[in-house]
Amino acid sequence: MPASAERIGWEGVGRLEMAGEGTCTGALIAPDLVLTAAHCVMDAENTPLAPEKITFRAGLREERHVAASRGAAVAVMPGFETAERETGDHLRRDVALVKLASPIPAALARPYALHGPSGPEGDLTVASYGQPQNDVMTIQRACHLLDASQGLYAFDCYINYGSSGAPVFAEDQGRLAIVSLVSSMGEAGGRRVGYGMSLSGKVEALKRQLALGVPSSEVKAAVVKRITVGGGTSSRAVGNSKFLSAE
What we know:
The chain contains two helices and 16 strands. By secondary structure, it is mainly beta. Mean pLDDT is 83; it is low at 216-247.
């Protein structure tokens, strides 16, 4: 299990707080853009949350953060819908951008670059605000890619409830860059496994959506059940942390 992370160099990762909907992890990719999982910013009616209900706290450690801002707009991948059972297509579309009302200066929290189209090679790193202490960032370095197929990734990085939306980093041209996001978790071979998606083309599409002011609610209506640990549906709120479980 990873130890609590030092803050220096990781301020661009923060906790996303959705009023009444729990918490997730997000990462700055621009001073005013937070990249996270789509299911983090959807309500029980399968509609994107009102952006003013979302707060991003960069570099949060217990009660302190380096900067914070409420949301101004939300863009979700078209076609994403929260489902009781995850499919490959669902996981591939589990990507969202939150535009911040107040950009966070790079001097306080440096945005991260996106990985190139070649995909991950070598070790992975995940930074997240997962349970049991989701007000302190944890980082796992040197975890591994287990499988990559059809735009989906499986990895053995330590994740937990609250890790949804967390950036998965891989080395790209000598620096760490975001190659995927934590979308769901499951078990394989008796160990916990995380699942994410290729981001190729998705972030650009979401940026265009925000620029055009297109509503991000191009999703199909779905009935979603909110449950706690031990239930059977896939959208879970545990200790105020959101997660999807791949079953």
